[in-house]
């Protein structure tokens, strides 16, 4: 049941017309009629003449809509990254609108939802994205094309929305025309977060302070036990005490440097990524354990994982805590967070090769998922020499949306080389930033994250 095998130390409704549910397809989703959005002030950083609308939908999600003065009649429907924890905040959609102002500069309308709830939950976020699309159609007008854009964790939301709402009966028009997935967490929840359990067990073996010896013991897959009061600053201080991550290398002790380098080599993340991933492996794991899988078993395990890169791999593997994934918890989490690949739309991805937040190897897993679903021909993947995760460059995003629209309208499947050439042409109006690596192909995820037993 997900318990430790070894742990050193202390222990008014409108029905969306859809065909009956089948394998890989969500049950029909019911949507309420939505109130019209209201005009709001546009935030700074948008092109002149943009019209902004906002509101809160019937499910409780805040949203923003922006329409440029020279609107090309296409709508980019955005699914944001994260996920955020806690109640939705209106500021999130405002920040997303500012970050993705390139879509407005390129002539597209833009709409983004905060989602109705925080936490690591994918299907409801996909429903919130579709709810916003329907609101736009009802109160702004039907766009000619609607590319669906998912960024980071939002890429899994967008892919799920495409699976749920992009498949139609013959002669029907799908909700979306194409899908753009950028810097995506695309390995599915039950695989994408394995490395964070690995980080927790290796960190605890080396540092022994999360939890502290005088704190109640708990299985590390739980993130934190219910009612825990640990703050992010307190965790950052513990990590700094053990690893010196907030110090320059010359200011660390020899012990701190050695422990930090062991984590960097074993988990295969740069120093700058250790604390962020530990944060996610704490509070996101707590959300998954308490709110997504029922709290009685782990969606993650590390039985059979062989950790390498330390000064003594045999000693490390003998010492770290081991947990067995619980089949029921895995199934429950998988139903929400894993992808089927059953996307009947053009799909275009881009990923920085040195992204330390969402490993580029996840794109290999996604391609495999699409191929197993018989949709390999609908996918084009591109890669850049970036190490950034949150934003690559203006010309990259303007190019990719334009390529997707042309793919839909002309039926011409793009190539990475053609996309790179189109991007270079975009550097004139949108500035430099095209760094496509045409020969790169990501290796399997198991070359980055240790393979393990699965239910």
Order of helices and strands: EEEEEEEHHEHEHEHHHHHHEHEHEHH
The CATH superfamily of the largest domain is known as: Alpha/Beta hydrolase fold, catalytic domain
The total count of helices amounts to 14
Task: Provide the residue-averaged pLDDT.
Answer: 93
Q: Please give the radius of gyration in angstroms.
A: 22 Å
Strand content: 5-15%
Q: Give the CATH class of the largest domain.
A: Alpha Beta
How far is the first residue's CA from the last residue's CA? 11 Å
Residue share in helix: 25-40%
Tell me what the CATH architecture of the largest domain is.
Answer: 3-Layer(aba) Sandwich
Largest sheet: 9 strands, mixed
Reported by name, the CATH topology of the largest domain is Rossmann fold
> What general outline do the C-alpha atoms trace?
globular
The strand count comes to: 13
Low-confidence sequence ranges:
1-26
